[in-house]
Please model this.
Amino acid sequence: MPYECIFVIPARNEEKSIVETVNRVSAAMEQAFDSFKVVVVDASSTDSTPQILERLARENSRLDVISGTRPHQKGFDIHNAFMKYDSSIYGFLDSDTPEMSQYILPAANLIKGGYDIVIGSRYKGGAKLDRPKSRVVVSGLYNKTINAIFGDGILDHQCGFKLFSKNAWAAISPLAREKKWPWDTEVLLIARGMGMKIYEMPISWRDSRGRTPIENISRVLSDASIFIPATLRFIYRFKILHRLSKA
Ligand SMILES: Nc1nc2c(ncn2[C@@H]2O[C@H](COP(=O)(O)OP(=O)(O)O)[C@@H](O)[C@H]2O)c(=O)[nH]1
Ligand SMILES: [Mg+2]
Model:
């Protein structure tokens, strides 16, 4: 029997947030579904996250813990976790934003009502944002660039909260290749190319890390080194190859 929903939480060194996130996601899932699994992918954490997860899994029969791959492969880890289960809905939520679990029930209802994909959006009207300026500027530039190139109309590609219907995931998954952060953008571009119905849900978002300005700049630079080559790959795949195949 397929599950009604599989909900994945990617986690790397999340000893501060993981208990609250697992508990709040589990409570939200109880409200929304009869049969479900909460699946934490522990990506080589070096803090006490693995021990905490072992304890949580002993207490919670609906929690599965699986091991991630190398660091930075969040997309690949979520992808692999989805592939392990047969489910009507697949979703994921970043571990450091437990308050986002409040959106699981409304997002699940939208999928049940016929949407292919529901994504959290920090930039849609009605959203509330508490984020360092450097990251807001870079993220805004990134989303606008993707829109200018691909015309996909999505305002927030990279928010760590997304749900997919079974059919949407079955169609997208064989085509998704990115392993790192840009996997989110890739799955949305594939979905748009297939004419899927995507709902951007305005959310209230707070960057929880409390990084120093130097750490924020360093994150922006490391993101640039990952997102710029990925965007060039997307141009090749979704624009150039697409045009050649039509010629
Ligand atoms: N699978 C996996 N997850 C990761 C990795 N690094 C961070 N995460 C998780 O991915 C989510 C987003 O990471 P975060 O550092 O908060 O990114 P930000 O929100 O863009 O600043 C969090 O739940 C992290 O625990 C990783 O290397 N692999
Ligand atoms: Mg985060």
Notes: The chain is about 45% helix and 20% strand. Residues 94, 96, 209 surround magnesium ion (ligand 2) (CB under 6 Å).
